[in-house]
Amino acid sequence: MPSALPDGDPAPEDGSLPSGVEIGADERRFGVYVHVPYCRVRCGYCDFNTYTASELGGTSRGDYAAQVARELALGGRVLRDAGLPERPASTVFFGGGTPTLLPASDLAAMLGRIRDEWGLAGGAEVTTEANPDSVDAAYLQTLADAGFTRVSFGMQSAVPHVLATLDRTHSPERVPLVTRWAREAGLQVSVDLIYGTPGESLGDWERSIDAALACEPDHISAYALIIERGTKLAAQIRRGEVAGPDEDLHAEMYELADARFAEAGFSWYEISNWSRSPETRSRHNLAYWTGEDWWAAGPGAHSHVGGVRWWNVKHPGAYAQRIERGVSPAHSRESLSDESRREERILLETRIADGLPADVLSADERRAIPQLIADGLIEGRAAIAGRVVPTLRGRLLADTVVHRLLGA
């Protein structure tokens, strides 16, 4: 089942933001995230805020685009009332769930609402996630015609028994088809992979890497499987039906992926992400890692503006009720202190190839840098140039890098 919402302070029904969020906004980019919480089946490893048809409690997917449009209109008013400057959206991302379970016309309508409310910056990146079995060539062409620029396919694996363990519904043969259709529509293509599934061998993983590269994507994400409490897979491991994760095998799989992607012309830019060029990086996800502003619409969606973070009610039914009442769907929020924002910056920017400026660190924290270099966890040349950039070993031990810098 979906994970619980975090604790926080009550969020006002009118959605209003505290003073101060406008400070420095001219220097921050603005993006929009739309959460589409629908899935055909619930994958056994997933604890995202998603719902199958039987879990919707009487709400209808057919009403969803209109509900999101009303939240986006609220968002425009809230940001204007808070004194935020007018900023067109530089990135838009539809995630889930499976956004492409909705008609393409619904995704186009929600993008149109974003364009009407904030405008789109020149060269804006507009992405949707998609399952390989949820789209066809006509659907993808409709998205491209509506202004989408990018699609991210949940490939996960090319090995049938791995897909079965993950409860994925598509066949491996579907992925080359949909990636070709997307390219023919003029869309950039990303594929998502998962490694470390119970029963997956290093050979299985190499087969998935080969299959992903054969699709000639512009971008690849590869995530280690995390066993989340409350999921079907966690229960299977607890009962001894499948093996638990093997951290050493995870490391081997990561190193293999990084080497194979590099051979194929991809460069890493975040621990779990590789692109063919700087132009095909996911700019929307980079905005999360570098502390930009974004409005997130939909059940359970998390927004951030100027150090204030808030999250919506989780269930589509509760979300719909708030929207129908004309009040903010926000459940709770928190205002980050300057120190909390600094520590989050250290946590996030030490994950990316551009690195963390060393002057963000205190004098005491900078004393950890020489030993991190000596232990092969950060790049020496980058450190001399004033940036903290993880090595391959440092990417595998990212938490260790952060803990040492913060003296934890």
TrEMBL record:
It is found in: Cytoplasm. SUPFAM superfamilies: Radical SAM enzymes (SSF102114). Residues 24-267 form the Radical SAM core domain. GO terms for molecular function: 4 iron, 4 sulfur cluster binding; coproporphyrinogen oxidase activity; metal ion binding. Keywords: 4Fe-4S, Chaperone, Cytoplasm, Heme, Iron, Iron-sulfur, Metal-binding, S-adenosyl-L-methionine. CDD domains: Radical_SAM. Gene3D superfamilies: Aldolase class I. Residues 1-20 are annotated as: Disordered. InterPro entries: Aldolase_TIM (IPR013785), Coproporphyrinogen-III_oxidase (IPR034505), Elp3/MiaA/NifB-like_rSAM (IPR006638), HemW-like (IPR004559), rSAM (IPR007197), rSAM_sf (IPR058240). Pfam families: Radical_SAM (PF04055). GO terms for cellular component: cytoplasm. It comes from the Bacteria. GO terms for biological process: porphyrin-containing compound biosynthetic process. Belongs to the anaerobic coproporphyrinogen-III oxidase family. HemW subfamily. Probably acts as a heme chaperone, transferring heme to an unknown acceptor. Binds one molecule of heme per monomer, possibly covalently. Binds 1 [4Fe-4S] cluster. The cluster is coordinated with 3 cysteines and an exchangeable S-adenosyl-L-methionine. This is Heme chaperone HemW. It comes from Leucobacter chromiiresistens.
